[in-house]
Amino acid sequence: MKMIRSKSMLKVNVSEDKDEAQEENGVLFWVNKSGFPIDSETWERMWDHITKIHPDGIDIVRKLRHKQDLPQVPIPQPPLSFTPTVSIPDRLKKIQEYMTELQYNHTGTQFFEIRKCRPVSGLMESAKEMIREALPIKCLEAVVLGIFLTNGMAGVERFTISFKTVFNDHQHRHVVLGISYAGHYGAIGMSRRDDLMYKPLEFKSLADLVLNFEKCYKKYCHSVKKIKVGLPIIHDPHSYEIINWKALMVNMSISSKKDCIRELDNHARKMKGLAKSSTISPYSTFKMVNTVEATSETRSHSLNRRSNSFLAASVVNKKKKKNSGTSLNDFEYQISI
């Protein structure tokens, strides 16, 4: 089996395993389809990929994999409920802090399979699994987890914002969960970059929020080509409704800034007419804590997996920070790992 690392190398054959690889930030990564506990094939493939992408190669695997005295990695506590006195902005901040504690997944294997065509109820089951296993996640998983943790928040509208950017002739994709509340906009999510995920509820329009993302992308020499914005997501975790991920597509490369703002403002008005927070049922605020509380056996298994995955990802992340700089090569390395 061969792993494709960038779109410029798509001529490489991935044979029958191509359906198990997905793309994010111009890099193809494996997806765990075996569920939990992770099967031996997926586990071996993950470590094999780490030897290929990590600067220390096989040495880092030998150092970590069979080490018996690995430090215990604490499992973050999910913010499943809030007292009425906690404001919506503070709730969103706590949710983002929880996802940040889970860490960004640098292992090259996405632990949770997310299919956009699944109904909301199915995606919410995936979110519960993320909480049980407490493993590092990527941007698409963070969107699903964010939907689950914001279910039942009165007056809060959630919608997806997807970005297609170009850096060094490579295409990169990213997605966050947009939030609107009381006339203000923000976002939560997961990224290697702090300013490409969480945005507090301080933007007065959807256009302001999106243009802020574009401004942050420019800091990393990325050119935003397309932006897709979905529709409000229902708050009922048992709904069979399918999320609309691309109700609006703005081609930033051919549209003027004025035209982009107009399209985004028009879409924001459309979303207000399709608001889902008004349909919240009295029971949707209960996240069924018992369904995400793992047994001691599952917790023990999760802790072992998280310890290995956390250490592998942390070493990569530390290496990245050590070599961080402002040159294009540094940006490229940080994006590719």
UniProtKB/TrEMBL annotation:
<feature type="active site">
    <location>
        <position position="191"/>
    </location>
</feature>
<feature type="active site">
    <location>
        <position position="139"/>
    </location>
</feature>
<feature type="active site">
    <location>
        <position position="174"/>
    </location>
</feature>
<protein>
    <submittedName>
        <fullName>Vasohibin-1</fullName>
    </submittedName>
</protein>
<dbReference type="GO" id="GO:0005737">
    <property type="term" value="C:cytoplasm"/>
</dbReference>
<dbReference type="InterPro" id="IPR028131">
    <property type="entry name" value="VASH1"/>
</dbReference>
<dbReference type="Pfam" id="PF14822">
    <property type="entry name" value="Vasohibin"/>
</dbReference>
